[in-house]
Specification:
It is built from 6 helices and 6 strands. It is an alpha/beta fold and 183 residues long. The chain has one domain: 3-Layer(aba) Sandwich (Rossmann fold). Strands 1, 2, 3, 4, 5 and 6 form a 6-stranded parallel β-sheet that branches. The chain starts with a strand and ends with a helix. The model has no long low-confidence stretch (mean pLDDT 95).
């Protein structure tokens, strides 16, 4: 199983990264930090609708989109900024418009970290991406309460939820794999 873990946190060794890597330790996969890639915002040119691919020549088109297409699961993580995902993750989400219909039935997971407010809105933004792409959300999402560096280690509920997300992804993968062998 190929799972891509994508961090929208601009901070190095962030609380979001901690939870993503914890879930990754259950499923295996690849960790991607969006700040390590050059990603232009969507220009809403709609050229992708005619060409079948994004016309922006950057690392989103050349590296990240191929990674998404080859994956079996995608877990997105973000800190909560103004009751939503980070600008880095939002740019990434918008740029997936060009691959509509190509992520169908991949497993999705959502992880957000914030300060008690805005968590549900950020989870909703990520789950909206999964639903738009007809992906299978593994669960409603993981919400961590933290702000300061390494503060997430005090949130035992989020740590437990991150582990359960990994277990759920494996469970869904097993069901999908079994279903595909029965056809």
């Amino acid at each position: 199983m190929k799972v891509v873990y994508i961090s929208g946190s601009p901070r190095k060794k962030s609380n979001t990264d901690y939870l993503l890597k914890l879930t990754l330790s259950i499923t295996g996969g690849q960790f991607v930090k969006l700040t390590d890639y050059q990603i232009e915002p969507c220009k809403s040119c709609w050229a992708c609708q005619k060409l079948g691919e994004c016309v922006i020549d950057d690392e989103m088109s050349n590296v990240l989109i191929p990674m998404l297409l080859e994956s079996d699961g995608i877990v997105l993580g973000s800190p909560v900024y103004f009751n939503n995902v980070s600008a880095q993750l939002k740019a990434f989400i918008d740029r997936t418009w060009c691959i509509r219909g190509k992520l169908e039935n991949k497993i999705g997971g959502a992880i957000v970290v914030g300060r008690r407010y805005g968590l549900e809105s950020a989870i909703g933004a990520i789950n909206s991406l999964f639903l738009k792409h007809e992906m299978i959300p593994a669960n409603r999402g993981v919400c961590g309460i933290a702000f300061l560096k390494e503060e997430i280690i005090q949130d035992s509920e989020a740590i437990g939820s991150a582990k359960k997300l990994g277990e759920r992804i494996l469970e869904l993968w097993g069901m999908l794999k079994y279903n595909n062998t029965q056809k």
